[in-house]
Amino acid sequence: MVLPKGIIIDCACVVLGTNLGAVLKEKVPEKIKDPLTVIFGICAIAIGVTSLMKMNSIPAVILALILGTLIGELVNLDTKVRNTFQKAINKLNFKIHGDHDEYMKFYLIVAVTLCASGTNIFGAINEGITGDMTILVSKAVMDIFAATIFGATLGRPMNIIAVVQFVLLCICFYMAKFIAMVTTPSMMNDFIATGGLLTFVLGLSIAKIKHVSAVNLLPALIVIWPSSYLFTLIL
User: Fold this and answer.
1) Is the dihedral of CA 204, 156, 138, 38 positive or negative?
2) Would the pTM count as exceeding 0.85?
3) What integer is the mean pLDDT of 177-186?
């Protein structure tokens, strides 16, 4: 069995950063944590804008975002994911300090950022097809610093996010060849662009510019495949 080396490196960096941040939690002053968190939010916005440049079909991406958001809102995905993470945190006896609602709101933002960004998923698919782990290793460099700052705020419960990230990216890695058979380069570019929009929204939330429930946008990452294919046939 081929090992997903890029995924292992990226997730290991997240775990390392998380636990380093947890150790330094009481030693890192708020005047350092807050500005750095905003900077990572701005970096996410920049990554999102860069990913949008790969867009092949604007109508396809807009349709996916609208339908994906509607699906997320109708099934109340944000609450379901929040409750799942909350149960895991409670079962593992992790302690949450401060305002519980604010903690979980930021926890979900970080979870989506690390687990479902277009860059991570595309990197896993690309490594599964070509064996090239450059994208994931590059992402790992940023993730270790981001995880350290996020870990200084969220503490050790962030380790759960790293586990979920590893599982999701491994699924993408081992399904990559099947995905390549049923998709086109145009569809993949539209997927990256949709992930870029999601990353842009996450950046706004991390930088505290505007909070949007990013979890409810996640179905767009699935809807974009048929949407892109449809507009490829029409246009």
Assistant:
1) positive
2) yes
3) 88
